[in-house]
C-alpha cells in the first residue's frame, strides 16, 4: 500500500497545486455570494434565478470550470489533509489515512463530472 | 596570518519544538493551514451539492437556496470565508518562493528563463486573485453577464 501511495504522488502534485489556485481564486467569491450575500438579501433575487444559473453553469466553459474546480479542490484537500495527518499523528498512520482521503477525492471527482454532465 | 582554527559553522540557535503544536506560533500557523483543507473539501462538497440540485430542476435549486439561507449554513459560511481567505493568502505568499529561479531551456532568451523578482511575482498573483474575485463575484451577483 505504501508503495502505491508514493507512486501516486507525482500524479497528485499537479492536482494539489491547481486546487490551491481554485481555493484561493474561486471559492471566496462563491462562498461570499452564495453563502452570505444572497441569503442576506444583498444580491438581487434574479441573480441566482434557476434559468440564469443554469445557463451560466451549463455552458461548455461553465461545465469545464466547475467540474475541474470541484475535482481539484477535493484532491487539494485530500493531499493537504493527508500530510497534516502525518504531521500530527505520525508517518505510520499514512497507510490508513491516505486511502480514505484519496477514495473520498476520487469518488467526489466522479460525482462532480456526473453533476456537470447532467446540467 | 593564519586563522587559529576552522571557521565556525553558522547555525541557528537550537529551539526545542517538543510539546503540543499549539504552543509554537509557526507550528500553529502551519497546522491551521493544513486543517484549512477540511474547509476546502467541505465547500467543494457544497458546490457539488449545488450542481446536483441545479441538474435536478428549478424546485431542487430553490430548495438548495432555501437551505443555504438557514442559520447554520450561514454561520458556517461566514467562518469558511474567513478560513478560505487566510488559506488563499498563505498560498499566494508561499507560491512565488516555490517557483524555480531559473529554467534550463535551450533556445529561450535568458530574460524568459529567469524567475521574476519574488515581490513582482507575489504582487502579480495578488492582483490576479483580486481580479478573479471581482469578476466571479460580479457575475454571480448579476452585475455582469
Fold topology:
The complex is a heterodimer of chains A (119) and B (145).
Chain A: H1 2-25, H2 27-40, H3 50-58, H4 60-89, H5 94-117
Helix pairs in contact in A: 1-4, 4-5
Chain B: H1 25-55, H2 58-68, H3 71-98, H4 110-113, H5 118-141
Helix pairs in contact in B: 1-2, 1-3, 3-5
Descriptive account of the structure:
The complex is a heterodimer of chains A (119) and B (145). With 119 residues, chain A is mainly alpha-helical. Chain A has helices spanning 2-25, 27-40, 50-58, 60-89, 94-117. Chain A is 85% helix and 0% strand. By secondary structure, chain B is an all-alpha fold. Chain B has five helices and no strands. Chain B has helices at 25-55, 58-68, 71-98, 110-113, 118-141. In chain B, helix 1 (25-55) packs antiparallel against helix 2. The longest helix of chain B is centred in the N-terminal third of the chain and has 31 residues, at 25-55. Chain B is flat. Classes of the chains: A mainly alpha (119), B mainly alpha (145). Chains A and B meet through helix 1, helix 2, helix 3, helix 4 and helix 5 of A and helix 1, helix 2, helix 3 and helix 5 of B.
Main beta sheet of chain A: strand number and arrangement? Answer: none
Number of helices of chain A: 5
Strand content of chain A: under 5%
Distance from N terminus to C terminus of chain B (CA atoms, Å) equals 77 Å
- What is the distance, rounded to the nearest whole angstrom, between the alpha carbons of the first and last residues of chain A? 37 Å
Any descriptors?
heterodimer; A: 119 residues; mainly alpha; 5 helices; B: 145 residues; 0% strand; flat
Amino acid at each position: 500500500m505504501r508503495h502505491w501511495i508514493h507512486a501516486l504522488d507525482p500524479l497528485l502534485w499537479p492536482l494539489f497545486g491547481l486546487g490551491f489556485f481554485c481555493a484561493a481564486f474561486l471559492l471566496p467569491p462563491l462562498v461570499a455570494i452564495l453563502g452570505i450575500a444572497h441569503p442576506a438579501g444583498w444580491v438581487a433575487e434574479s441573480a441566482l434565478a434557476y434559468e440564469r444559473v443554469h445557463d451560466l453553469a451549463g455552458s461548455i466553459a461553465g461545465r469545464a470550470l466547475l467540474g475541474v474546480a470541484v475535482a481539484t479542490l477535493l484532491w487539494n484537500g485530500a493531499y493537504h489533509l493527508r500530510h497534516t495527518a502525518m504531521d500530527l499523528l505520525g508517518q505510520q498512520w499514512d497507510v490508513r489515512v491516505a486511502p480514505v482521503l484519496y477514495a473520498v477525492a476520487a469518488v467526489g471527482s466522479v460525482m462532480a463530472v456526473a453533476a456537470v454532465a447532467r446540467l | 596570518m593564519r586563522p587559529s582554527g576552522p571557521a565556525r559553522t553558522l547555525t541557528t540557535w537550537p529551539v526545542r519544538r517538543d510539546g503540543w503544536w499549539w504552543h509554537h506560533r509557526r507550528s500553529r500557523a502551519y497546522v491551521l493551514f493544513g486543517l484549512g483543507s477540511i474547509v476546502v473539501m467541505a465547500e467543494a462538497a457544497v458546490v457539488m451539492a449545488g450542481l446536483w440540485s441545479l441538474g435536478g430542476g428549478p424546485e431542487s435549486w430553490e430548495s438548495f437556496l432555501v437551505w443555504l439561507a438557514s442559520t447554520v449554513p450561514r454561520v458556517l459560511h461566514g467562518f469558511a470565508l474567513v478560513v478560505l481567505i487566510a488559506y488563499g493568502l498563505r498560498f499566494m505568499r508561499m507560491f512565488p518562493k516555490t517557483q524555480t529561479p531559473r529554467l534550463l531551456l535551450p533556445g529561450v532568451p535568458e530574460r524568459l528563463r529567469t524567475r521574476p523578482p519574488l515581490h513582482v511575482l507575489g504582487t502579480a498573483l495578488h492582483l490576479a486573485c483580486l481580479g478573479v474575485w471581482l469578476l466571479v463575484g460580479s457575475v454571480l451577483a448579476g452585475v455582469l453577464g
